[in-house]
Every structure is written in C-alpha cells, then in structure tokens.
C-alpha cells in the first residue's frame, strides 16, 4: 500500500513563488514584450519581431562595449584568483591572528558598491585625493578623468581591493577543511612546498575555486555602480562597459525596444559563459 503524499508543504513555498513571480518573472516578460515591439508613442505598439535583436547584434557600439567588458573580466580573474589563493595560503590557520585576519578581510565586502565608487573617486583625485596627490608629488602624470589608461588602472585596482577578499575567504575555507593527516604524510614523504600545494591544497580547493571563479566572473561582467560613480564610463567611452552602455540606451536615450533586446542578449551571454566555465572546470575536476 502506497504511503499518502502530503502536499501541504507547498503552501509554505507558495508565498515565495508568488514573490518571485512579481519580482522576476513579470518584469522579465515585460522586457521580452518590449524587445519584440516598437512604438510611435501614446502607448501605440506594433510588432517588430527580431528587428531590435538584429540591430543590437550588428551594432559596433555594442561590440566595442563587449570587448571592453571581456577584457575587464579577464584582467580581474587573472589578478584576483591567484592573489586570493596567495593570501589564503599565508593567513594564520588558528588563534587570535587568524580571527583578526578574517575580520580585516571581510571589511571591504561590507562596503556598499556606490560607497566604494565614491571612496575611490575622491581617493584618486589629484587635488584632494591621497592617491592622486601622492602620485602627482612623485612625478607621475596621473589623471583618471582624462587618461583612459589611468581610468582603467583605477577601476581595476578598486575592484581588486574590493573583491579579492571574497576569493581569499573562500580559499581559506577550503584550506581549513584539509585534514592534518595529509600534511603529516607530506612531511614524512619530504614533499616540497610546491608539491604540497599542487597535490594536496589545490585539489582540495577546486570546489571553492569553481565558486570563486563563477562569482567573480558574473559580478565583474555585470559591474556597473563602481565604474559609473568613478568615471561615468569615460573618458570618452574608455570605461563604458556593457551595463553602462545598456543604462545609457534605456534611460539616457529612452530606446526601450533596443535596450530590452540588449538586456536579454546580455543575460544570455552571461549565462552561456558561466555555463562554459562550469562545464570546463567540473570536467577538469573529474579527470583522475
């Protein structure tokens, strides 16, 4: 005799489903609706099909923003992942200093994104900012407002300062889960420091590294607030990433149709690249 199924638990999930529907599904359907229609105003819409999608995919402006976005995310991953691993390996494992390091590492993550942008906007100014004034005093011609290279350097350093702690804390958690027996066996075998890292620590951190890479890629690929506050996408379009370009299109120009199509393509690109990251890294983990 089959055991009766109790479906009353669904009533506990129902409020969450309703909330998700209002906060995610309905806005998404609105965006889809705008992406396939055009309007002459007065709430008069007519069918446009995939016209907006073709315009976005063929736009040189979008291609340039995508190139800048991919370059930025690549630089961020190339810096923050190795740096986070290095910091985690050198953090104390237990005791007072371990607790102090954990607190200090967590502090940048508690600062809101717009505040981070404001801090670095002031910090990098040549007239009143500590960084800008110091570099100018040392003879460096630093001006993130007028020089694209300085603007890129400022945004990259800002993101590294803000988010490397996340990678370090995740790697630290992975290291803490390694039993002492592994290190004892390595000492008996007289393994080198590189050997311990290569064959013990790195494999044990692979799971958290996968999470760190995915989180940092998605966040860096969707970055908006910090560079917008610091540079506004300038100088020129030097730091106009996809998110900034999308906001300019939707709010600045009020092109709702192209902006809706752009946002859907943006979402699919993030989803596709994240899936590729996940597939490749999980496949490497399964290799004996």
Question: Which tags fit this structure?
Answer:
288 residues; mainly alpha; MetI-like fold; two-stranded antiparallel ribbon; 12 helices; 2% strand
Q: Helical proportion? A: over 70%
Question: Helix tally?
Answer: 12
- Count of domains: 1
CATH class: Mainly Alpha
CATH architecture: Orthogonal Bundle
Strand content: under 5%
Question: Could you state the order of secondary-structure elements as H and E?
Answer: HEEHHHHHHHHHHH
Structural class, from secondary structure content? mainly alpha
Radius of gyration: 24 Å
Give me the count of strands.
Answer: 2
- Name the overall outline: globular
The CATH topology is MetI-like fold
Distance between the termini: 45 Å
Average of per-residue pLDDT values: 88
- Tell me about the largest β-sheet: 2 strands, antiparallel
- For CATH, the homologous superfamily is named as MetI-like
Unreliable stretches (pLDDT < 50, length at least 5) are none
Strand order of the largest sheet: 1-2
């Amino acid at each position: 005799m089959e055991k009766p199924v109790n479906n009353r638990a669904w009533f506990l999930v129902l409020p969450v489903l309703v909330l998700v529907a209002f906060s995610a599904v309905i806005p998404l359907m609105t965006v889809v609706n705008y992406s396939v229609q055009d309007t002459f105003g007065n709430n008069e819409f007519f069918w446009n099909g995939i016209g907006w999608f073709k315009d976005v995919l063929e736009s040189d402006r979008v291609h340039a923003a995508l190139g800048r976005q991919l370059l930025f995310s690549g630089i961020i991953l190339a810096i923050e992942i190795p740096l986070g691993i290095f910091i985690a390996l050198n953090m104390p494992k237990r005791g007072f200093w371990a607790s102090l390091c954990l607190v200090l590492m967590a502090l940048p993550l508690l600062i809101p994104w717009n505040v981070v942008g404001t801090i670095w906007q002031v910090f990098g100014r040549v007239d009143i900012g500590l960084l800008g004034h110091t570099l100018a005093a040392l003879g460096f011609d630093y001006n993130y407002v007028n020089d694209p290279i300085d603007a890129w350097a400022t945004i990259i350093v800002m993101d590294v300062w803000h988010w490397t702690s996340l990678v370090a804390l995740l790697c630290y958690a992975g290291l803490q889960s390694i039993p002492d027996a592994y290190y004892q066996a390595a000492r008996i075998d007289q393994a080198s420091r590189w050997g311990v890292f290569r064959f013990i620590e790195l494999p044990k951190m692979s799971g958290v590294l996968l999470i760190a890479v995915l989180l940092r890629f998605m966040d860096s690929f969707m970055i908006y607030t910090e560079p917008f506050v610091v540079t506004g996408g300038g100088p020129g379009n030097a730091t106009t990433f996809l998110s900034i370009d999308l906001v300019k299109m939707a709010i600045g120009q009020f092109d709702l149709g192209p902006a809706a199509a752009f946002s859907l393509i943006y979402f699919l690109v993030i989803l596709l690249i994240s899936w590729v990251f996940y597939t490749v890294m999980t496949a490497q983990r399964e290799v004996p």
